[in-house]
Amino acid sequence: MNFDLTKEQAMIRKMIREFADEKVAPGAEQRDKEKRFPKEIFQQLGDLGIMGLPFPEEYGGGGADTISFAIVVEELSRACGSTGITYSAHVSLGGAPLNLFGTEEQKQKYLAPICSGESLGAFGLTEPNAGSDAGGTETEAYLENGEWVINGSKCYITNASYADHLALTAITDRKDGKKEISAIIAPTSAPGFRVVDNYEKLGLHSSNTTELVMEDVRVPEENLLGKRGEGFRQFLITLDGGRIGIGAMGVGIAQAAYEKALQYANERKQFGTAISRFQAIQFKLADMAMKIELARTMVYKAAWLKDQGKKFTKEASICKLYASEMCMEVCDQAVQIHGGNGYMRDYHVERYFRDAKLLEIGEGTSEIQRMVIAREIGC
User: Fold this and answer.
1) Predicted local confidence at residue 175, as pLDDT
2) pTM assigned to the model
3) What pLDDT shows up at residue 134?
4) Residues 6+ apart with CB under 8 A from 249
5) Who contacts 323 (Cβ-Cβ below 8 Å, separation ≥6)?
6) How many beta carbons lie within 10 A of that of residue 161, not counting itself?
7) Contact (CB, 8 A) for 140 and 171
């Protein structure tokens, strides 16, 4: 078993780490305060060819693997959680369904702009009454004169304000009391389509989180993504890949919190010595380092399985669950090591703590991950 990165993966990590340190991290705290979306950063990532990293080259992608995607998410999240989640959702929720289920024409029309960064990727799944129970979808679409007519709403949708189009789930028929759920590609500029950006969030302030409202939105019949009635299956497959991204985010944010805590512990003096000399602090830092390494290994394993075409549902849930809960623990301890200073914005760790909480909720809550794992092990 070889744990070395390939030459290409190592080059990507070096490039994106330098970019994150030089372009992303310096303004992260100010963007968080201003709740300002870093549009310029994603334009630069597009120029670097990173926005379509794991997608085929014929659509403008980089043809890289899932491990490379995880590396980019981790490094961006280490610098800024909001930037990390924007990129992760762009690829795993916005681009992946088009790549997996789209026709050649749909890929040329809708995936290519995502790869170039011309449009950010987004995916319309969650609704006010369809969160963990995604099958509770109430948005509906019916065919009329060769067009899908869509009515309904979505909530907590990442990137939609900067997406020219997105795939969304809708009920396309009801048979014997059962919902037929399909995925449809809809332009956000279509008449009757509104993107509402007015959430007040705990963290990830410089990421874009919106509501979608569809009132008689009409799109061509050929905008059906994949097969009719398979939207539910498609989004389950999509979420498996997305959970690798959330796991990588957890590793990145935790790494940032750990680095700040280690630096602070070496500099802060109490009782005449650096607090890093106290065993109580050493044990905290040792546990943090250990858990981050374990989470990173699990993220890479899930990504490797995906790249090998092997089943990875269980491993994706394990990496997402462990990395997200580990991240909350590490950020909590980073605040604790900083003491009163940790509660203040100037030391950054309170931002990591706030940003980390979403990871236990998005892409399936911790409770849902345990249900998936239990199912996969035969319970």
Assistant:
1) 87
2) 0.97
3) 83
4) 73, 74, 77, 81, 84, 85, 88, 323, 327, 359
5) 246, 247, 248, 249, 250, 251, 254, 295, 298, 299, 359
6) 16
7) yes
How many domains does the chain fold into? Answer: 3
User: E strand or H helix at 374, and its extent?
Assistant: helix 366-376
Q: Are 88 and 53 in contact (CB under 8 A)?
A: no
Residue 1: band (very low, low, confident or very high) from pLDDT cuts 50, 70, 90: confident
Please name the residue that has the structure tokens 């800024």: 80
Q: How do residues 274-316 score in pLDDT, each as one tens digit?
A: 999 999 999 999 999 999 999 999 999 999 999 999 999 999 9
Which neighbouring-strand residues pair with 166? 186
Residues 202 and 82 in one domain: no
How many residues are there in the chain? 379
Q: Is 14 contained in some domain?
A: yes
Same-domain status, 46 and 66: yes
| Owning domain of residue 183 | 122-229
Tokens of 344: 């203040």
Mean pLDDT of all residues belonging to the chain: 97
* Digit-coded pLDDT (tens) for 187-245: 999 999 999 999 999 999 999 999 999 999 999 999 999 999 999 999 999 999 999 99
Task: Give the catalytic positions in this structure.
Answer: 363
CA-to-CA distance for 81 and 207, rounded, in angstroms? Answer: 8
Please check the confidence at residue 177 and state whether its pLDDT lies above 90: no
Full DSSP string of 83-141: HHHHHHHIIIIIIHHHHHH--HHHIIIIIHHHHHTSS---EE--BTTBSS-GGG---EE
CB 221 within 8 A of CB 143: yes
Q: Which DSSP state fits 62?
A: -
Same domain flag for 268 and 185: no
